[in-house]
Design a protein that fits this description.
Elements lengths: L1 E4 L1 H8 L5 H12 L4 E5 H14 L2 H13 L2 E4 L4 H14 L3 H13 L2 E4 L5 H5 L4 E4 L2
Parallel strand pairs: 1-2, 1-4, 2-3, 4-5
Helix pairs in contact: 1-2, 1-3, 3-4, 5-6
């Protein structure tokens, strides 16, 4: 199965918050090839600056190296079609730019979002995609 991590999913894992166990399980499954995990550079940026706030830039830089060596497939670009889809999500659901890119990524991959972000409930309820909610 394919999953796309929202930044808050990885942050929950790093901070040992609710849902950390589910994220750990998905990381393990990706490491064995059972599932595939994706993140866009936008969500990586969100986690990176969170790590700066939590500790400092050196820690964030070390974490970034770990992340790029992890089983998460990093999507470095946003395609023209994804830009259009992200624009639709942004205007249709009044969500953040980062979340609109996340939703467009999920749609293009036909994947499941892994998140805690309540902002994604409306598009999920509209049948745009499926969500693995972290509790």
């Amino acid at each position: 199965m394919d999953y796309v991590f929202d930044a808050c999913a990885l942050i929950a894992f790093l901070n040992d918050e609710a849902g950390a166990e589910a994220v750990a399980r998905l990381l393990t499954q990706a490491g064995t090839g059972t599932d595939r995990l994706f993140m866009s550079n936008i969500q990586i940026l969100e986690v990176y600056y969170d790590r700066i706030y939590v500790r400092d830039r050196a820690y964030a830089d070390t974490f970034l190296e770990y992340l790029y060596a992890s089983p998460i497939i990093i999507l470095p670009e946003i395609s023209r079609d994804a830009i259009r889809e992200a624009g639709r999500f942004k205007t249709s659901y009044s969500m953040s730019l980062a979340d609109s890119i996340l939703c467009a990524t999920v749609k293009s991959l036909e994947a499941t979002i892994v998140t805690k972000d309540e902002e994604l409930k409306a598009p999920e309820q509209a049948g745009e995609f499926t969500v693995l909610w972290l509790n």
